[in-house]
Design a protein that fits this description.
alpha/beta, Ferritin, 2 domains, two-stranded antiparallel sheet
Length: about 325
């Protein structure tokens, strides 16, 4: 039976009921979000996992300085996992669920593993294990299929946003700090590309786009999708920087799944610590309205100079 992204998001969020009593409601997202990312990566690599392990056996004794590109090529994505475990094998050994899950996380290539570090996933594993909840949470996530054949990249973006919206509501945070509705992004991208429609239909063109408040990557994803509609032979290289560690981790994992260079996504304050100086063909962003973005210093960037605190307000 096919269910839409909202129903899938509701199913995933229902897993948070397992946390009641051991976690505050405002802490639910610390478990739900990284496990959602992990399950997505698990499903994405499902069909090539055994091929990656077979190639690993062939190349690990060749004294190669870096075998990651080789394994990534086999996986079909810009990440891979060297562990023998997946969600099915994890739930088959309840007594060793914590150790096996750590082995699984450590088996990811560095670019994927980093996303879980910024989620403080190790801390959540320890906490869930002490509360005898770790196996139950892993088992519930194993029950949902997040393979791209079942949940497209666009639907997965909606699903992430719905989860973050729920997390923001119960945390008394502003959901707008983390994502922009896809319909709004589509309108913004249409306006941005409207004058360049002729250029963007040229064969083999490569353009770049930067989002200095990237959130979960929605603007970058929609922009890439729209360019593909205009010109299937064009490519949009996307770059972004995000201050929130969870949003950054989601954005980066989404880029890996879509075949983009996840190294183009940076963590940090783009005003005070700009890690992507450009230049870029386009810049598109939705700042976190009402949020103090810059400490009490003077910064120069984006061709302007401002004296903080800078409060972006509507």
């Amino acid at each position: 039976m096919t269910i839409n992204f909202t129903e899938k998001a509701n199913f995933i969020w229902s897993i948070a009921e397992l946390l009641r009593g051991d976690y505050k409601q405002s802490e639910y997202g610390r478990v739900i979000l990284p496990f959602t990312v992990l399950r997505r990566l698990d499903c994405v690599q499902d069909r090539t996992k055994e091929d990656v392990l077979a190639k690993l056996q062939l190349v690990q004794n060749m004294n190669l300085e870096n075998i990651d590109p080789i394994l990534n090529q086999v996986s079909g994505f810009k990440f891979h996992n060297r562990s023998k475990y997946d969600f099915n094998k994890l739930i088959a050994d309840p007594e060793n669920i914590a150790a096996n899950l750590r082995h699984y996380i450590n088996g990811f290539s560095e670019n994927a593993r980093e996303t879980f570090e910024h989620f403080d996933f190790e801390g959540q594993i320890e906490r869930l294990e002490k509360a005898d909840l770790l196996y139950l949470v892993v088992k519930r996530f194993q029950e949902i299929d997040l393979h791209p054949d079942v949940v497209t990249n666009n639907e997965m973006g909606y699903l992430f946003e719905e989860l973050i919206r729920k997390f923001s509501e119960i945390s008394n945070e502003t959901a707008g700090e983390h994502f922009t509705p896809r319909e709004v992004i589509r309108l913004m991208v249409n306006i941005l590309f409207f004058q360049d429609s002729e250029i963007l239909t040229k064969e083999g063109i490569v353009e770049t786009m930067y989002d200095c408040c990237a959130g979960t990557g929605g603007m970058l994803s929609i922009a890439e999708e729209y360019l593909r509609e205009l010109n299937p032979r064009a490519r949009l290289e996307v770059f972004g920087q995000e201050l929130n560690p969870e949003s950054y981790s989601i954005c980066k994992s989404d880029m890996m799944i879509k075949g983009q260079n996840a190294d183009n996504i940076k963590l940090g304050n783009s005003f005070s610590d700009d890690q992507l100086p450009g230049p870029f063909s386009y810049m598109l962003t939705n700042p976190p309205f009402g949020v103090v973005s810059i400490p009490d210093k003077v910064y120069s960037g984006f061709g302007v100079k401002c004296t903080p605190p800078l409060v972006i307000d509507s």
